Amino acid sequence: MAGGAFVAAGGKGQNYNGGVTAFVVFACVVAAMGGLIYGYDLGISGGVTSMQSFLDKFFPSVERKKKAEEGKDNAYCKFDDAILTLFTSSLYLAALFASFFASSVMKIFGRKPSMFVGGLIFLIGSILNAIAPTVALLIIGRILLGIGVGFGNQSVPVYLSEMAPAKLRGALNMGFQMAITIGILVANLINYGTNKIDGGWGWRLSLGLAGVPAILMTIGAIFLPETPNSIIERGQVDKAKIMLQKIRGTDNVDNELHDLIDASEAAKKVENPWRNILQRKYRPQLVLCILVPFFQQLTGINVIMFYAPVLFKSLGFGDNSSLMSAVITGGVNVLATLVSIFTVDKFGRRILFLEGGVQMLLCQVAVGVMIGAEFGTNGQGSFSDSKADLLLFFICAYVAAFAWSWGPLGWLVPSEICPLEIRAAGQAINVSVNMLFTFFIAELFLKLLCHFKFGLFFFFAAFVVIMTVFVTFFMPETKGVPIEEMNRVWKAHWFWGKFVSDEAENNKVHDHNTVARD
Ligand code: BGC
């Protein structure tokens, strides 16, 4: 991208004026509702699908099967059931498809409409879920929720990245992940409460309450400002300047505006972000937009998020303690995300990725060894109190490591590395790969646990090794680099530099622009 190359040479982007205004913070808080919605979904299904009244109403055959199997004591296979996992996983498949439409909506109409549409569809889905009289409507509701999540996950991280000043982009963008983790924790707590409601309608409340953040996001999207990048993308430079001044809290925004216009001009020359991202010069972005979400899911985190109550129950924790354990891991998830927020723009992304990877690896191996030693391959056994506590400790340390590394960075890095002309496509790829593998994990985990037994934890540990090696060699530091200047990071990289340096030959038009402006 010429804009990036030109700017990088001058390095002036580092001197953009302005900081975090209340305006930015408010906008980001509202936008982060998208994360809350997503987190709520991640956290709510595990509890709901284990509620008696929910199973009685929609899946009586599952209940019968479970009762029949209660006698057989194989901890690894207790909860392996196709229909229930489909209830959990269908949402992520819908989100996957939706994110492709969302990418066009975002490009043509801006980030705001995309958030608005997402919030509205999600709201309808949660109402349907709350009143669903039949399984069919329940599933339709899940699909609508998925579409809402697809739109939200597509537009919110991009929105946050574009609103934030470069030096704080990491921390503000992480508002999104923070909201996800709060959503998960709130969902755990709500399930804990609604499970106790007499009359068997607690699950309706659990599912219906998802509408609350959806309302906030929908209404918020009406009042939020559009990002300057998006306004320029649609040709209104003067309006963009006023907006940028408002957002940055200073009149002196010429440098940044110049760079945004420059980037946008380059972007306009290229009509199809999907064709663009396949070009050789965008190979680093393409590869990272695929691998980062893939790796994020292959950490195995959603095994804990979806199935913690089930997992703890399988491992011999009592009913109440298993739910409490889920709440504890949910709490650790939120707190550890804060660590990331406060360190990511100071120490950078790589150190968090690397430390988090090593910590996750150690914990996964420890969990695998403990479960293997206690339950062997036949799945029979139970933990003593002290061993159960130790296991919980390792699971919490694993969740913490994820929550300050791959959790937030899995969304931050893909959203900050793509220049405007490929941003919509890059983000769509990121969201869909994430959803695809979230879907696979939701679908397959209980089956895999049943077959691989404790070895499953080593399986995820092996992936953590691979991703940590990948970060070491192929992930450059992107801390504090303005989005539109990211190109110089690739150019300077020992491996990616080979792809990006071809740019001068491939893109004469951009070079011409650059020189003319100079
Ligand atoms: C991931 C989710 C995960 C969550 C846990 C997110 O970054 O995308 O799949 O459940 O973190 O906090």
Automatic annotation (TrEMBL):
Regions crossing the membrane: 20-40, 82-102, 114-132, 172-190, 202-224, 286-310, 322-344, 391-412, 424-442, 454-475
Xref: SUPFAM superfamilies: MFS general substrate transporter
Membrane topology annotation: Multi-pass membrane protein
InterPro entries the record matches: MFS_dom, MFS_STP/MST-like_plant, MFS_sugar_transport-like, MFS_trans_sf, STP/PLT_plant, Sugar/inositol_transpt, Sugar_transporter_CS
Secretion signal, residue range per the UniProt entry: none
GO molecular function: monosaccharide transmembrane transporter activity; symporter activity
Membership in a protein family: Belongs to the major facilitator superfamily. Sugar transporter (TC 2.A.1.1) family.
Name of the molecule in the record: Sugar transport protein 10
Organism from which the protein derives: Ziziphus jujuba
